[in-house]
Amino acid sequence: MRSQWELADVINRFREALEQKYPLSSQQKGVLTLLQQCHTPAMGGHLWHCHECGHEHISYNACRNRHCPKCNVLRRLRWVEARKAEAMPGGYAHIVFTLPHDLNDLCREDPHPIYNLLFQAAWKTLEAFATDSKFLGAHTGMVAVLHTWGQNLMLHPHVHCLVPMGGLSRQGKWKQARSKGKYLFPVKAMSKVFRGKFTDGLNKLEQEGKIRRSLSIDLRQKQLHPLYRRKWVVFAKRPVAGSEKAIEYIGRYAHRIAIANSRIKEVTDEKVTFSWVDYRHSKTSNMQLDGAEFLRRFVEHVLPQSFVKIRHYGILSNRLKNQALDAAYRNEEQQRPEKPPTTPWFELIEMICGKDPLLCPKCKKSRLSMVALLPPKRAGPDDDFTLNTSFHQVA
Description:
Blueprint: H1 7-21, H2 26-37, E1 45-49, E2 56-60, H3 73-85, E3 92-98, H4 104-109, H5 111-131, E4 141-149, E5 155-164, E6 166-168, E7 174-176, H6 187-207, H7 226-229, E8 233-237, H8 243-254, E9 264-267, E10 271-278, E11 283-290, H9 291-299, E12 310-314, H10 321-331, H11 345-353, E13 369-374, H12 387-390, E14 392-393
Antiparallel strand pairs: 1-2, 1-13, 3-5, 3-8, 4-5, 4-12, 6-7, 9-10, 10-11, 13-14
């Protein structure tokens, strides 16, 4: 069921108040504009025609921005489909690395180097445990997805990591983890190593002049630094049975944005009400915020231009994944399956909605055909949107 309220409604109503109250970057302003224009005449569109009953239907183009709540469903399904085609047969572990709230101000000031460091520290931590013969003794990999928010839209940077339950030995052979359904690596030990890797990287960034901190870290006594004494959180889930289930699970996180339209419950002239889950008590309730404050929290999660939020490391990188897959299937004494053909977009939509998006909504007998293109319609004082003069016929 379609939500009554959308993020675009909130932006349309409170953007002016937001910009008057808080300074925004050009990147944040650009994202807000795209989200306002998504699926509107400003984006242009297509004219569809039913040859059975003559019904005509207009569909407006998507903005395709990664922060848009309406533009990531197909992208997520495509991503899951691609990961399933290269799934490791031995299963995966799901591990989450979280930054302490003490670093939130630094994330706001210098998001690019800090989020890069978060990826690097998580990977170095996993690599250190994987290569240790006490745990795995092999070269591992990970697919990591950055999230910067919590359910209440406050800043909460963390990375979700999908890690194979095994790795490549120095001889190029597959070595399966000995966890037997338990955690891949000890969580408390990973937390301490992650803290050390990140704080060392933070100190290096400061020495290179890429960030500035009010209280520097003395590497000779870093255990006395308030940041180092803080408890760092690494969360691990027990391995999910079956590689495809694990990929589908993390696929929910792959193209998620800070808030979905379905969570927006009410928009008034002053307030926005949305649902959220308090994970401390596992209870769902509604939260009400001033409209400008709601948008302020949302734009905090607009990532820097061209920042890569999904990354592949080690044996899951493009360079090594085929070698790792061949070794893993040989270890299981199985034939590696052929890569399946890409599923057409309309079939993916039908999988989600349960109906063919190209089926005529009027006669429900024939499929719609695209007959014309609608160019983008920019807002202006004398604009009068007219179908007959705006379309370019498709040959």
